[in-house]
Specification:
Layout: H1 15-30, H2 34-44, H3 52-58, H4 77-84, H5 87-94, H6 111-117, H7 121-128, H8 145-151, H9 155-162
Helix pairs in contact: 1-3, 2-5, 4-5, 4-6, 6-7, 6-8, 7-9, 8-9
Length: about 190
Amino acid sequence: MALSKCPSSDLQGTPFLEYSSLYWGVHAKRDLSDCAKQLALKLFNSYNNHISTKHLLEAQEGYSLTIDFERPRLFSGLHCASLFGIVGIVSGLLGVEGCELNQRDCVGNTPLMWAARNGHEQVVETLLKRGDVCPDRQGRYGQTPLCCAALNGHVDVAKLLLERDEVVEILCIFPMYIQHTTVYSFT
């Protein structure tokens, strides 16, 4: 039995769906078999508005309040694989025609922002190797991948981003973090 894309909005009593939505990427990252990679790539071909994104995005600190879960939402497979840091799936998705590398999702993040926010250095490297990536694209509140890395203490990711000429060192200020604003120096 396959999961419906639009089942009842009442997800109470679905512990397996919640667990798998939050942790499948952790397990896949540990040991990504060819079979699991092919299954994930097939799922991600039509991942926008998938039921599991509600659980995943609600669990992301600072984002659950900014999403209207009753409206259709954009959160692609590339966003999801970047959030979890699964290099093999990110690489596979980048090879798919129509892959939107710089697309902002329903919370305003690009795949590069998710990877930077979560400190996934290999995914950041993979995305930065693409000539068509915008490493300084701003999110909904003006944050950039550099801000996402810096605010979450991922110095090595921030240094990778600063190697790109387009990335500008800026003061990371935006409404959701205004009380914790810090100037970061990576030199």
